[in-house]
Amino acid sequence: MGKRPAYLKNKRGSYWVVSAVLAALVWLIYGYGNDFPLQPLVENSEFKNRGFQGRVEEIAVPEKGLTFYFMQENTNPLVAVSFIFDHAGTAYDPQDKQGLAMLAAASLKDGAGKYSAEVLREEMAMRGIKLEFGADKDVFSGQMTAPKSSLPEAAGWLKLILSRPRFEEKYLVSAKDQILKVLETEKENPEKELALAFNRKIYGAHPYGRNPLGTPETVAALRRSDLQDFAGRKFGRNNLYIGIAGDLTGKEAAELAGLIFGDLSEKAEVEPLETPDIDWQQSVLNIRRGGGQNIAAFAAAGTCRQCEDFYPLYIANYLFGGAGLNSRLNQRIREKEGLTYGGYSALTLNDQANLLVAGFAATPEKFARAKELFLQEWQKAGETGFTEEELRAAKDYLTASYNLRFASIAGISDMLAYMQKYDLGLDFLQKRNGYVEGVTAEQLNRAAKQYFNNNLLQAGIGFFGKEGEDE
C-alpha cells in the first residue's frame, strides 16, 4: 500500500506521544483502516449481523461539577477511563512556546505528588495499570486502563498526575532531547518533510500550520514552570469530556470520576482559535529531492461532524480512496495500471478546518501518469458521482464492519468521550448504522459534486525532472 502523509498517521513512538485516544477517534469517524484487509475479517466475524446492544448512560456528579458517558461491560474485570481537554492541543501553544502540549504529554507520567517517576512506573507495572497521554491540533487527551482490583491505586495516581505533576528535571531534559532529535531527523524523511511543508502551505500563519513538536528554538527554551503553567491553565472541568467503560456500576463510575477529576480547576482557559483563511487556488508545491519514490498529497475542503452532508461525504470518500484496494482510486492506479502500491483518501476533522485529503506514491518514471489518473478519477467523482451498486456495497461493508470497533474496553471509553465532544447523543452507537443506511444516491452524488471539485491543493516531493520546481 502507498504511504500516508505523516500528518494523518497515529505516531506511537515515545517522541510522538500520541495516545490510543486518537486511534479510537479514527475508528469512530471511519471504522476501517486503509492498510489492513478488513473485508475477510468482517465477512467471517461473529459480530457481522449483530446490532449494538450496549447501553450508554449519562451520569452527573453535581457536587463535583461533572457529567460523563458510561457503559457497563462485565465481560472482563477491566475498567477504562478516557478523557479529553478541549482547546488544549498543539495549536493552542503560545507562539514562543511551540511544542509545549507535546512535551507535557511526554512528561506527565514522570512523577506526581510524593511519587517519583521510578516508583510510579514500577507500581503501575506491577498492578497492570496503563496510562497514556497525547495531543492533536485541538485537544489534549489521555486514557487509563486498569484491572478492577487495581482501580483505587490507578485512580489515585491519575488524580495526582493531573493535579500535582512533578515534571522531574532529569526526565524533562531527556524528553526535550528526544524531541529535538526527531525535529532533526524529520529533515531526512521525505514523507514528514512533505507533510510539514504542505501543512504550512494549507494553513499559512495559522497555528494549524505549525509543526506539532514545535521548533528547535522553542523546545530548547521550555522549562518546568512552563509545563506546570500548562497543566494549570488547560486541565479544567469546563473543557473536559470523560468516557468510562468496564466492570463497574453507574454509582461506582460516578465515584471514580469524582475522585479523579473532581478537584480540577473549575474553569480552564478555553479561548477558541480563529478559522484559518485557506487559499484554495494556491499553486502546486513541489519539493525536489532524491529518492526512490515521488510522494503526492492533495487536500480539499471537507465537512463538519455535525453537518448534514457528513455521511454522504463519508461514503463518497470511502468509495473514492478509503476502501483500500477496492476503492476507485486503487482499482485505477494500482490494479489496472500498476503505477503504485496504493493510494488513499480520508476525512480529517479539526475544530476550525475540516479537510478531504488524498495521496499516493510512485516511482519517478510512473509518477506523472499516476497523477494524471488520480486527477481523472477525482474529476469523475465530482462530475458523475457513484452508482447505486457502489453505494450498496459501501453500506454493506460500513455497517457490517461497525461492531468490530467494540472489541476492547479502551476503544469503547474513547468513543464515549468523543461522542460528547461531537455532540452525537447517547444513542449514537445504536443509530450510527441507520445514518449510513439512510444516505441516498442523490445525497451521495450531491456531496461528491460539492467536495470533489477543482479547489484541490496539490503537493509533491521527489525527483520531478526539468519541470519540477522547488518552493
Instruction: Describe the sheet with the most strands.
Output: 6 strands, mixed
The name CATH uses for the topology of the largest domain is Cytochrome Bc1 Complex, Chain A, domain 1
What's the helix count?
A: 17
Distance between the termini: 28 Å
CATH homologous superfamily assignment of the largest domain? Metalloenzyme, LuxS/M16 peptidase-like
Q: List the domain count as a whole number.
A: 2
Structural class by SSE content = alpha+beta
Low-confidence stretches: 1-38, 45-50, 467-471
Q: Mind telling me which CATH architecture of the largest domain this is?
A: 2-Layer Sandwich
Radius of gyration (CA) equals 23 Å
The fraction of residues in strands falls at 15-25%
CATH class of the largest domain: Alpha Beta
Please give the order of strands in the largest beta sheet: 1-2-6-3-5-4
- Percent of residues in helical segments? 40-55%
